[in-house]
Amino acid sequence: MWRRTYLLLLLIRVYFALSPSYLHPDEHFQGPEVFAGRIFEYPSKLTWEFTTDLPIRSVFPLWPIYDVPMSLLKWFYMEIGAGSPPPQLVYYALRGGMFLLSFVLEDWAIYELVPSPRHRRAAVVLVASSYVTWTYQTHTFSNSLETLLVTWGLVLIRRIVENKHTSFFSYAVLSFIAVVGVFNRITFPAFLLFPGLQLLPYFQRKPTSLVVFVGFGLLFTSIGIFIDTSFYRPTASFLDIVRHPIITPLNNILYNSDSSNLALHGLHPHHQHFVANLFQLLGPAYIAMILSLFSWSIVPPWMRNTRALSAVSATVLLSIFPHQEPRFLIPCVPLLLSCVRMHRSRIFLAVWIIFNAVMGFLMGVYHQGGVVPAQLAMRSIVENNSAAQGIKSHPDATVFWWKTYSPPHWLLGAQQGNHTGQIDTLDLMGIPGLEMIQQLEIAVPSCPNSSPVYLVAPSSATFLDQYSSPSSLSTPHSPNLQLYRLWSYSQHLNLDDLDFGDDGVLETLNRVIGRRGLGVWSVRRACK
Fold it and tell me: How high is the pLDDT of residue 474?
């Protein structure tokens, strides 16, 4: 029975891995966007983390996850003489790679971390049934990579502590995981700090193992610094790298130590992780864990293991910092779910299935779900619209994005021959509607229309109705500006547009959910 259940959950994970939802801009701009412009002839935009004088993001852990598969695809297409691969193929190849890493490494680690044979299968199935496993773990997040590093760090610690004849290879792998984890995210040590204390008696008995562990750590750290410095200073010589290295984890720590910097990204109460974020990730499992704290006079069983120690201690340490997002706690999800024993209750099972089904489709399908398909289709939209208007020269196009997540530039792909001109992507974020119209007024040329201008916006933005209604040839604000819908995608929800204060709960839900979708409009003047 458990095998059939696990296979069904595996198919569900594949479905969500290939669904183009968009959970957070970091899944693109701190990963694929960084390498796509360097490897292919794709447009790309590096965010401030990579362009500041003291860069805070390391490319050392990103290289095997993104650079290697992209380079392999480029090599294959060059061998067959087909130019650059289409961005769709690259996108789904990276998603497929994240799925394989989650399926193989995460499930394997949980199977090893649960000591009881009776509970192993149930733990693996419960983790595999979480919407976090379906969505976050199959997206290109640094947090998803952190989850794999944390779980395998715990596996290696356990192997070393329990095996009296551990080889040097185990020390080297654990050292590699520790270094890559820190270069990937500076939050990584919080998950292994207290579990790692188990190694102190072992290192005291075998000081040679400590020397090997530290030696490999220094080696991998040097490699990471060398790769980062070479990336940010391509022309630097080896001597320049030694004299003036770029240590991205140190820069990251210094940046996040300044509360004024964290304020730019949003400040949260210190209890945000425990009160809201863990509940959002775990749902009924988190409620069951909390209730167990009051039903036991001593520590409940689920807290009496290294997995719970890692998750709880990390949550406490991360709660010290005022900037707290749910994805920061993604490594806690498999660790805590592998401790749950209440899943045999039929009530718990029913609520668990409903919770993950709802959150799975919300986050895995509909959450900003039209951004990626729209960007992948943008060149075809521009080309077809130019042909429909009788424009044969394929002029440059300007695409404004409004009330969506930042569109990944690399998904536009390479310009193929003379089919389309240059596409300029401008992100207006969530500015007021009148300001958005003013931006369009400046960009749209005078009559006759010559340079195409497009607007990408959610269908729930009722402000656009006055400009796109066929019966309205003019408006008080812009008498000559008209929007013509060219393309739409229905599986898109803009949760950032929930304005309960102004519109009320029912009207807001009816607008955001009832008018779900993302549209691409051609912006033109009403020329006589």
Answer: 47
Identify whether the C-beta of residue 455 lies closer than 8 Å to the C-beta of residue 486: no
Residues in the chain with pLDDT values less than 70: 164-166, 296-299, 302, 342-344, 392-394, 416-420, 448-451, 469-479, 499-504, 528
Whole-angstrom CA distances from 369 to 358, 361, 366, 427, 513 are 15, 10, 5, 17, 13
CA distance 507 to 504: 6
Please list the residues that pair with 436 across neighbouring strands. Answer: none
Q: State whether 323 and 424 are in the same domain.
A: no
Tell me which residue has tokens 């715990």: 154
Q: What is the CA radius of gyration of the chain?
A: 25
pLDDT digits (tens, 9 = 90+) for 441-493: 899 887 766 668 999 999 998 889 888 865 554 455 545 788 999 999 999 99
Q: Which of 366, 384, 404 marks a domain boundary?
A: 366
- Output the 3-class SS for 416-450: CCCCCCCEEEEECCCCCHHHHHHHHHHHCCCCCCC
Query: Is position 2 within any domain?
Result: no
- The H-assigned helical ranges of 395-518 are 433-443, 465-468, 500-503, 505-514
Task: Give CA–CA dist 404/519, Å, rounded.
Answer: 11
The helix (run of H) or strand (run of E) holding residue 300 is none
Q: What is the pLDDT of residues 264-295, one digit of tens each?
A: 888 889 899 999 999 999 999 999 888 887 77
Instruction: Indicate the number of domains in the chain.
Output: 2
> What pLDDT is recorded for position 509?
82
**Same-domain pairing of 260 and 394:** no
Residues 6+ apart with CB under 8 A from 20: 91, 369, 372, 373
Question: Distance between CA 55 and CA 36 in Å, rounded?
Answer: 19
Q: Are residues 303 and 197 in the same domain?
A: yes
Instruction: Evaluate the omega torsion of the peptide bond into residue 64 and state whether it is cis, within 30 degrees of 0.
Output: no
Q: Which domain holds residue 309?
A: 20-366
**Confidence (pTM):** 0.92
In angstroms, the CA 527 to CA 71 distance is: 48
- 204: in domain: yes
